Amino acid sequence: MHKMQAGDSSGVTRNTFHGISLLLMLGMAITLATCGDKSAGEVKAIKQQVQRAYGTKEFSKALGLSQKGLTLARRTLLIKLAEENGDTLTAGERAVFVSQGVGMATGKDPQPVYRTETMYPPEQYRRKIEGDVEIAYSLDPTGAVTEARISKATPPQIFDQAALESFRKWRFTPMLDKVGRPIVASGFKFTLAFRMGR
What pTM did the predictor assign? Predict the structure, then answer.
């Protein structure tokens, strides 16, 4: 089960962010390496930073992960662009590619690959009311939300509409069968947390 704060478009912890930033730095080094001799010093400096962070023994592993991560990041960017332009066919195809890239299978939680911003209801914000909304949902083979209902909310019925309005537009990594084909899946839960900014 996932939990994410309303208005939080990252959903990333600090440790995850640190790891991702190191992988992105390595990805930049790979990209700069293709730019010619001018960038050689920058490439070397970035590689050294990543080696210090991961250790020399883990550098090859980090390099492989960063290349895979950059590929997946490009695909999720394409999903975002397709969704925002109303091209749900392309968004669905790209979500399947991401799902295959991360090996989605039974027992894993679907990962959001496209999220619309969840708006904090103005009245609740003004009154400084916070809460959580747990949503039970199902996915079609393209990762689109087909069913979404409130399974639990604290306080009840205060944030339900805002949560569902946003969540129904999200797209997730679809589940895959044993041979890697996308399938219809259900029984998932996701919690949206409505919190005042600290």
Answer: 0.66
